[in-house]
Structure to design on (556 residues):
């Protein structure tokens, strides 16, 4: 029997809470929380409306469950794909070097240096406000993979010169197998940590769809 | 020789990044459905002045010229590149006509650099120290407490954090001013003192909002290195803990952190939009915001181009400096 430490338990409980609120509860909503004037406006929290209602006549609690659902989806998808693509690109660029590295560096630096906000506005306007969660995730992935890629590349640059890599190379291991079997384990823990950090990404900055940031920013705007 | 070849190919990449970036930000606003000239004309018309049709027409063509919207798209592109690359100028600002964009940026840039360079560096140092302790001495009580604080603060959205600070230190304990208020003067001691005093709150909000990231990242990096044979060997040999942390762990873990720091320093030149607006700070973020709100194309192009050049330069510099931090790295 594996002994769970306190931190793992706390994390598990929090994760469970998120899954209950975001995945299970939205199906029990008595009405579509996105529709306006479904309930009286600007109510204080009560038993009927646990977190009160918004100035648009939406129930804040049910709106929050939908928001957590969206945040959870974007967060997990973006964190997973941005980190995976970033780590792979960084490892290949840093380890192989030469023209392949220059090409990958070019891509990374372009996506880091061009500010994402104007592009997001452009995408939103081209799609006439019908941005799906998938499109938002895609744009966020495109603008987020270069950051871990740049960091992993610096690790790979240093790893490449280590003794055991030479040993692996002289014993006939292919480039791919060296990257996957010798270097990747080194960055695995860091990648997991990085990916979990990135899960929080949609919270403060997703103005397009009702993610958790949205009710908060709405409340702030309507506050005196 | 190897270095020269590396430098050449890296420089080519550097200029390509800047060129692609500038091209993207040239085309993106032109595909947006909003038309800044019509908007500007509308502002003039709605102010109540009556104009004859030919006057409106003349004004429209003047505005087109000012916005750099004359001629076909390729012509506009060539003009923009000629003006920006060879003249180093982005033309006059339209929101603050006729002040040149360069002058506006020159006025805001020192403020942004002052605030963001200091707070980014402080957050980096604090975050990496705590991360190092949390990764290497994870059993110690102070490591747990410090890491706990970082993990607790990190997920709080930045604007909530900033508002909490404003409520705490402006309304409940009125220590700091509501918004940035420094008299422009010569570089006298009073001026510097009041600039620092006014920047404490925005700087604090950035440091508190950013250092958790460094903690979590550094913890993961140093925990992996703490398991390496050479660290165990050093410990058995009787090397002191501070030396192990400073000379063994940090030197092997710091590379990704330096990379990220360099890129962050590059993005400083974009300004800190939310910080500067919340605290009324006169930096590049506020300038960009004004440019967006007033659809001031020239100013927007100017601020974004500065950001692109800065990030590309930071990435180039850190690539060239890697061997200094880790002598094993060779230019390839």
């Amino acid at each position: 029997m594996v002994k769970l430490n306190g931190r793992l338990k706390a994390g598990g409980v929090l994760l469970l809470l998120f899954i209950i609120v975001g995945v299970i509860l939205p199906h029990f909503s008595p009405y579509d929380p996105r529709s306006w004037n479904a309930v009286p406006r600007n109510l204080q929290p009560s038993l009927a409306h646990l977190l009160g209602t918004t100035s648009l006549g939406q129930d804040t609690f049910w709106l929050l469950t939908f928001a957590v659902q969206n945040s959870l989806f974007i967060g997990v998808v973006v964190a997973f794909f941005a980190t995976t693509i970033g780590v792979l690109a960084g490892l290949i660029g840093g380890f192989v070097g030469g023209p392949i590295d220059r090409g990958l560096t070019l891509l990374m630096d372009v996506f880091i240096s061009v500010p994402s906000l104007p592009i997001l506005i452009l995408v939103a306007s081209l799609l006439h406000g019908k941005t799906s969660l998938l499109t938002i995730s895609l744009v966020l992935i495109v603008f987020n993979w270069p950051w871990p890629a740049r960091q992993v590349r610096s690790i790979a640059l240093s790893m490449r010169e280590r003794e055991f890599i030479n040993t692996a190379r002289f014993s006939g291991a292919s480039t791919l197998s060296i990257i996957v079997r010798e270097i990747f384990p080194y960055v695995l823990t860091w990648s997991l940590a990085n990916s979990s950090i990135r899960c929080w990404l949609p919270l403060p900055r997703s103005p397009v769809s009702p993610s958790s940031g949205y009710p908060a920013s709405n409340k702030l705007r309507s506050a005196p | 020789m190897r270095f020269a070849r590396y430098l050449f190919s890296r420089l080519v990449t550097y200029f390509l990044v800047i060129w692609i970036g500038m091209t993207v930000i040239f085309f993106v606003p032109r595909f947006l459905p909003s038309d800044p000239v019509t908007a500007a004309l509308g502002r003039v018309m709605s102010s109540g002045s009556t104009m004859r049709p030919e006057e409106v027409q003349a004004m429209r063509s003047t505005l087109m010229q000012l916005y750099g919207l004359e001629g076909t798209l390729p012509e506009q592109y060539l003009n923009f590149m000629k003006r920006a690359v060879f003249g180093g100028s982005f033309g006059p600002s339209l929101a603050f006509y006729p002040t040149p964009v360069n002058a506006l940026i020159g006025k805001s840039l020192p403020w942004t650099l002052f605030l963001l360079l200091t707070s980014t560096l402080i957050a980096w140092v604090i975050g990496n120290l705590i991360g190092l302790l949390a990764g290497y001495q994870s059993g110690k009580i102070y490591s747990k407490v410090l890491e706990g604080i970082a993990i607790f603060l990190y997920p709080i959205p930045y604007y909530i954090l900033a508002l909490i600070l404003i409520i705490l230190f402006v309304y409940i304990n009125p220590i700091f001013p509501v918004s940035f208020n420094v008299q422009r003067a010569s570089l006298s001691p009073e001026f510097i003192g009041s600039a620092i005093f006014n920047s404490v709150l925005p700087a604090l909000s950035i440091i508190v909002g950013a250092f958790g990231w460094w903690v979590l990242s550094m913890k993961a990096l140093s925990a992996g290195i703490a398991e390496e044979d050479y660290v165990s060997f050093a410990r058995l040999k009787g090397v002191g803990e501070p030396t192990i942390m400073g000379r063994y762990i940090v030197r092997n873990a710091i590379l990704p952190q330096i990379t990220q720091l360099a890129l962050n320093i590059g993005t400083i030149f974009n300004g800190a939009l939310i910080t500067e607006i919340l605290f009324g700070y006169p930096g590049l973020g506020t300038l960009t915001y004004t440019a967006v709100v007033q659809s001031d194309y020239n100013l927007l192009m100017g601020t974004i181009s500065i950001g692109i050049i800065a990030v590309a330069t930071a990435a180039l510099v850190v690539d060239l400096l890697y061997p200094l931090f880790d002598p094993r790295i060779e230019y390839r």
Remarks:
- Residues 202-224 of chain A have pLDDT under 50 and may be disordered.
- The two ends of chain A are 55 Å apart (CA to CA).
- Residues 90 and 151 of chain A are 7 Å apart (CA to CA).
